[in-house]
Amino acid sequence: MLGHRGPFSCMPDSVPACRSGILAAMHDITSHTLRGVEVLSLCDAVGPMAGSLGAPVTEKFPNAAPELWPDLRIAEPTLFTSGDHWILHFHCFLLRDATGRNVLVDTGIGTASSPAADWAPVPGRLLDALADEAGLAPSDIDVVVLTHLHSDHAGGCVTDGEPVFPNARHIVQQAEVDWLARTASSPILGSVVDPLRRAGALDTLHGPLRLAEFVDLVPTPGHTPGHQSIVVDDHRLVIAGDVVLHPVQLIDPSIHYLHDENPQTAATTRTTLLNEIRTRNGLLAAPHLPHPFIELHPHHP
Ligand SMILES: [Zn+2]
Ligand SMILES: [Zn+2]
């Protein structure tokens, strides 16, 4: 095991009984090992989407059928504020491959001065979680994989212009960097990408990469153009970034997120990836879902 859980828990004290078939598949085990690859969830934060992105959750998933929400409110009440805004979890994942390398997948929301501060519950506690639950210091991280360059995933890898994980290579898709360069309003280029590049710590990919035995990086575009996911043991476990953001998308993968860059591509990617996981009776690991790992099984008519 990488370690044991510290006193902080990502989960609320009382988790309501799950009622729907899909949500009943969720559980709160925080690590899994497959083929010698260990994956541990690390809770960076839990809190509402607020500030510049604050809006009722129904507006965040505009093509969701209205009748889906009442059941979700009953099954997962901790996902809703009294004002019907969305309470997100922000999970990062630590993967230790068979050679003992420590691979951190996403870096959370970062410090109080992070680019995520205008909407997310900063500061994140990823570094505490890394120490408490895995017994690791930032210098122990060998590889950082950024699923994409949104502030809640990349905000934690640079502080005050310096890489937080000083010995790590940082892997991102070139398509993601190119998209960001076209997006004048994004602060991530200057606050994250440029410092990593200056430090010689940024590796950009053009497509898939076998990161280690049984561990593959695969492009999963749509939420952002260069979004990538981590596939372990042929979809028996997938760290899916923001391919899936909310349980409502497990009920219907065609439900898109308001801030998806290309909603149609995102829906296609989500449907395909979820089907792959279901075929393998696999585990979905997604940062914003209320439970870090979710078992998925084939649909039976
Ligand atoms: Zn995102
Ligand atoms: Zn996100």
Automatic annotation (TrEMBL):
<dbReference type="InterPro" id="IPR001279">
    <property type="entry name" value="Metallo-B-lactamas"/>
</dbReference>
<dbReference type="InterPro" id="IPR036866">
    <property type="entry name" value="RibonucZ/Hydroxyglut_hydro"/>
</dbReference>
<feature type="domain" description="Metallo-beta-lactamase">
    <location>
        <begin position="89"/>
        <end position="288"/>
    </location>
</feature>
<keyword id="KW-0378">Hydrolase</keyword>
<dbReference type="InterPro" id="IPR051013">
    <property type="entry name" value="MBL_superfamily_lactonases"/>
</dbReference>
<dbReference type="GO" id="GO:0046872">
    <property type="term" value="F:metal ion binding"/>
</dbReference>
<protein>
    <submittedName>
        <fullName>Zn-dependent hydrolase</fullName>
    </submittedName>
</protein>
<comment type="similarity">
    <text>Belongs to the metallo-beta-lactamase superfamily.</text>
</comment>
<dbReference type="Pfam" id="PF00753">
    <property type="entry name" value="Lactamase_B"/>
</dbReference>
<dbReference type="GO" id="GO:0016787">
    <property type="term" value="F:hydrolase activity"/>
</dbReference>
<keyword id="KW-0479">Metal-binding</keyword>
<keyword id="KW-0862">Zinc</keyword>
